[in-house]
């Protein structure tokens, strides 16, 4: 006989719609626990139609690749709403670690063969071969509705090709766009010649915004955009704020943002600027607090800031140190969609133990619960 008083509220008596509404307000760690309560809750949470405001904030993904054994690879994901790291299944692949990349909710290998898998799913799809196999290219995922049906495509820009074990520095490599529906590649004009001295993801950053794929030189400040519909490059311009040492271009809150390290008269600083996409003029929006900046580096090193990297998406920008001896510390900046104001905070340390990595892949992506449950 039940001890429940029928006059008192009981969640089991709620309708399905109200139950789903309540569940949708929970952060992901709580959703994962709630999915184990009963079959009904799990079916609601794992349904492809389940939506939640907590899923809109982009997560920070960090994939560490070991230089001798893939068994020592490690993968982590940071949920900004719960302020928690999750340890993910490790990457295991026989390909060269230099060919691993992440973008737009997918992981990729680019050589010796091009393949991809949705984030959090180990279901690799092998594509027809690239015309130019390459390592460290820029990769973007965009939606194309030119055929009347909205489909996602991949764009591969730049990178380095090896011929006889040597780097081919002369070939700028054509842009290649992949259509998964037809398993076909389309060849487009290569990066402008201005980028010849540094055309890999080690010296370039990229941003997708309003039908354009922007390519930006981290150290050179060169910028050009590729029109995803007309397949033409814009004129190369230079974006170099006074005192900037290196910077990254990011698409945030439907606007272009530049984030980078400066050596200003007042001392080293990490700045964020908004870019007017029409005039390409810059306006400063925020500086990282000095205490936060120095918490990311070893104060004893001369070139302490050189290993800082930056990625972003939506309303969040993540800055982290890719050096192992620092255990990959990170912080984030949240840009308000209402007033554009920025708030900074430290990201918790990665869950121990953390291995020493030969290469670190980092990017932002929103998360779907179908990635977790299916």
Automatic annotation (TrEMBL):
One protein family per Pfam: F-box
Q: Which residues form the F-box domain?
A: 14-54
Q: What is this protein called?
A: F-box/kelch-repeat protein
Q: Which organism is it from?
A: Hibiscus syriacus
Lineage of the species this protein comes from = Eukaryota, Viridiplantae, Streptophyta, Embryophyta, Tracheophyta
């Amino acid at each position: 006989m039940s001890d429940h008083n029928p006059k008192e509220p009981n969640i089991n008596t709620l309708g399905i719609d109200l139950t789903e509404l309540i569940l949708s307000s929970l952060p992901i760690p709580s959703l994962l626990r709630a999915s184990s309560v009963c079959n009904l809750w799990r079916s609601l949470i794992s349904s492809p139609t389940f939506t939640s405001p907590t899923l809109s904030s982009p997560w920070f993904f960090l994939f560490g690749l070991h230089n001798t054994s893939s068994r020592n690879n490690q993968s982590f994901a940071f949920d900004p709403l719960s302020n928690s790291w999750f340890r993910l299944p490790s990457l295991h692949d026989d390909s060269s670690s230099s060919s691993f990349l992440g973008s737009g909710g997918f992981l990729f290998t680019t050589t010796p063969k091009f393949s991809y898998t949705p984030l959090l799913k180990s279901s690799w799809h092998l594509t027809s071969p690239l015309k130019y196999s390459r390592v460290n290219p820029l990769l973007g995922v965009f939606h194309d509705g030119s055929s009347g049906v909205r489909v996602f495509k991949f764009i591969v820009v730049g990178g380095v090709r090896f011929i006889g074990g040597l780097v081919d520095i002369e070939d700028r490599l054509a842009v290649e766009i992949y259509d998964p529906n037809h398993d076909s590649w389309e060849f487009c004009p290569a990066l402008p010649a201005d980028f010849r001295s540094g055309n890999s993801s080690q010296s370039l950053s990229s941003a997708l915004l309003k039908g354009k794929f922007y390519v930006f030189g981290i150290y050179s400040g060169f910028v050009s955009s590729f029109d995803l519909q007309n397949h033409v490059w814009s004129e190369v311009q230079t974006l170099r704020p006074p005192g900037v040492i290196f910077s990254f271009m990011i698409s945030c809150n439907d606007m272009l943002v530049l984030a980078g390290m400066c050596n200003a008269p007042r001392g080293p600083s990490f700045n964020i600027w908004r870019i007017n996409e029409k005039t390409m003029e810059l306006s400063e929006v925020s500086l990282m607090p000095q205490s936060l900046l120095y918490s990311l580096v070893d104060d004893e090193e001369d070139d302490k800031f050189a290993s800082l990297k930056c990625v972003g998406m939506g309303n969040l920008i993540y800055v982290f140190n890719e050096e192992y001896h620092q255990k990959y510390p990170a912080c984030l900046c949240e840009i308000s969609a209402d007033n554009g104001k920025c708030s900074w905070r430290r990201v918790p340390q990665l869950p121990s133990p953390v291995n020493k990595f030969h290469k670190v892949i980092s990017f932002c992506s929103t998360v779907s619960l179908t990635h977790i449950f299916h």
